[in-house]
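# step 3/5: fold
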Amino acid sequence: MNQFSDISSRLSDWTTRLYFPVVSYLNERSNFMASSASVTSPVAARRRALAGAAPSPESRFDRRQSKILFHATEVFYEKGYAGASMRDLSRASGISLSGLYYYFESKEKLLYLIQKETFTTIVERLRERLEAVSDPEQRIRIFILNHLQYFLVYRKAMKVLSHEDDALKNGFGAEVAAIKREYYGICMGLLDDFRRERKLDGSSRLAVLSLFGMMNWIYTWYNPRVDADAEEIAGRMGDIFLHGVGSANPRRKGRKKRSVN
């Protein structure tokens, strides 16, 4: 576990960085990072990098868009996506209705951006963290830590993502679903590697869905005043998950396989 502890301590600072406008506005409200207002939007930064342009400070448009997204998350959290209206968002953000439509043509676009940027950021962070580690068990533990560190900070966003999973339609829904499949696929691959190394039987699908169930509902019970921090909880969840998977019988020749779908 020394390797994982070292990696975890070096990576814990990731939770104090900003990756996209949603994180920027949430950090401004929670004082998670006092200098958030001066951080460049990563989406805009990637576009400038592709164009060969030098980085520039976050624009007024980015700041206003971030403010609206923050309030949209709050309103969706309180009223639900179906129960919220653009007028609710206008009142919460202090921006006129016409001003809202200048930035976002619909509340569906707001939900789309919240979901897209959240899942994109989680996947990007995860891939960077996994690059430095080759041990299958530690890679699974990093997956759990990466997930919990993000969502324990942004629990309201977690509820919106969990409860409004099927609200997006047409192209918006398909795009977000593709990112989710990528994230799910990463976890499946990590578990498959672990099972191959340990020569374990069992259903990776069942195990992975059980892991997501354990992680995703943490927002319903987590209390920072009495519960441990993300690193400790991730370690304990990792123990529960890996010991459960590891309890499967080793593969034996001639054993009849039974799948769980």
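# step 4/5: annotate
The chain has one domain: 2-246.
# step 5/5: archive (pending)
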